[in-house]
Amino acid sequence: MRVIMIASAALIALTATTTPATAATNLVVLDWNIQGESADTKAIAQVIRDSGANVVTLQEIHRRPDADQVRELADELGWDITANAHFGAGDDVGPCDDPQPGKAGNAILSSFKIVERVTIPLTDFATCPVNRSMAGAKLDLGGGATVTVFSTHLSPGLSATSVARREAQANKVLNYFGSRTGLILTGDFNAPPTDALSKRFVSAGWVDTGAKYADQPTHGSARIDYVYTRGITTTSGSVLPTTLSDHRPIIMRMTR
């Protein structure tokens, strides 16, 4: 299974850049940390519908025997769980936490068909912290055009240990992509724009779309949730004022 996962990771990274079709495709990307098991999926689906999003990236999302949030949201949005959703399991509780049934991770849902999927583990903690991962999906936009979308959730905390963990995870993310383009990277990075970690992404050629279009807090009084792009044109965006989660969703409009 590990060999297959690594091969898939290489494939989705290497094929991330494609020649777009002549007619540009309008993308409406919504990113949201939905606060895990407390999420009201029906209400969240309504916010997504109202936003007009056709690409949705989510953190703190669970698939459990009694509450499959990925399926619930796909059903509410009218998107097929097989063709239009990817759940990247990999953010499960650490070994010193209470065991929980099912899996937690990041998800990508879209009205566009997903033609490639990958889940990249970012940590392998042997002690307490929640492990972290990154989910990726290549979307078929039609007419030969594709776009590749990734989403992640880096470790929280302000201690030196927490910062070091988050920096190590960011290193893996940046090294994975290298200089490739034609990408959208979203997620809860647990770092404000002034943080060295955020500056590293910008220095590596990622466009922080929120800096221009949605420079508002996404969690408390801080902006720690991001929609980064490479080789994608963003035209507008905002932070949505919902209180359904402890994070507020970001909506970005793009062309590809």
Description:
- With 256 residues, this protein is an alpha+beta fold.
- It is 25% helix and 34% strand.
- The protein contains six helices and 13 strands.
- Strands 1, 2, 3, 4, 5, 12 and 13 form a seven-stranded mixed beta sheet that branches.
- Helix 2 (41-51) packs across helix 3 (69-77).
- The chain is globular.
- The two termini are 33 Å apart.
- The model is unreliable at 1-7 (pLDDT under 50).
Tell me the total number of β-strands: 13
What fraction strand? 25-35%
Model regions low in confidence, pLDDT < 50 over at least 5 residues: 1-7
* Shape call: globular
Task: Round the mean pLDDT to the nearest integer and report it.
Answer: 90
Q: How is the biggest beta sheet arranged?
A: 7 strands, mixed
Distance between the termini: 33 Å
Radius of gyration: 17 Å
**Helix amount:** 25-40%
What structural class do helix, strand and pairing data support? Answer: alpha+beta
